[in-house]
Design brief:
- This protein is of the alpha/beta class.
- It has a single domain, classed as 2-Layer Sandwich (Nucleotidyltransferase, domain 5).
- The protein is about 35% helix and about 15% strand.
- It contains 6 helices and 5 strands; from the N terminus they run βββαβαβαααα.
- The protein has a 5-stranded mixed sheet with strand order 3-2-1-4-5.
- Strand 4, helix 2 and strand 5 form a beta-alpha-beta unit.
- The longest helix has 17 residues.
- About 30% of the residues are buried.
Length: about 180
């Protein structure tokens, strides 16, 4: 959230991490300040792989997560939702608006963004991805090279629904890792 946004007496803030990463799905996190508790859910990798990706299953998954957030946080008519502007949350925002909630689209910054990003990194480590590969946000090439070391085993962790995966990157991982063209 940026400084040009107001804070409300009752608000729920929602953000995501993982959309632009090569591996796994997306983590969605929510907080209801001042309560320090944090709610986190994951959109699975399979939602970003054929045939689910073309059907935009990840958007349906985000709506299911919105339903859970409502169930857990129990918002009332005075509650404002501040939802990150990321595309993966577009159906979630629309769902909340259609339910009559006040929804503000905000930039992803601050403490919640850091918490959600840590949740995504934790998921990666749980899935066997070495933590040292995840230290920087600009990790596409590093992760592509890691997948290329054992492509038959690791391709299942990749968001393979993107057109660029079939068009270019899939072929690249089956080359020798040192031959990947940056």
């Amino acid at each position: 959230m940026t400084l040009d946004h107001f804070t409300y007496a009752k608000e729920i803030v929602i953000d995501s991490a993982g959309w632009s990463d090569l591996l796994l799905g997306v983590v969605i996190g929510a907080i209801k300040p001042p309560d320090p508790r944090y709610m986190e859910r994951r959109i699975p990798t399979s939602s970003f792989q054929p045939p689910n990706f073309k059907k935009k299953k990840y958007l349906d998954d985000s709506v299911k997560i919105a339903e859970e957030i409502i169930e857990v946080t129990q918002p009332d008519a005075e509650t404002h939702f501040k939802v990150s502007s990321g595309y993966v949350l577009s159906s979630l925002r629309r769902y909340l608006e259609n339910r009559g909630y006040r929804v503000e689209k905000v930039d992803a910054t601050g403490e919640l963004q850091e918490i959600v990003e840590r949740g995504y990194v934790r998921w990666c480590v749980e899935s066997g991805i070495p933590a040292e590969l995840l230290k920087t946000k600009r990790r596409f090439w590093t992760l592509l090279e890691w997948v290329a070391e054992m492509p038959r085993l690791r391709e299942g962790l990749v968001k393979t629904g993107w057109a660029s995966w079939e068009r270019k990157w899939r072929e690249e991982i089956y080359k020798k890792p040192q031959d990947i063209q940056r």
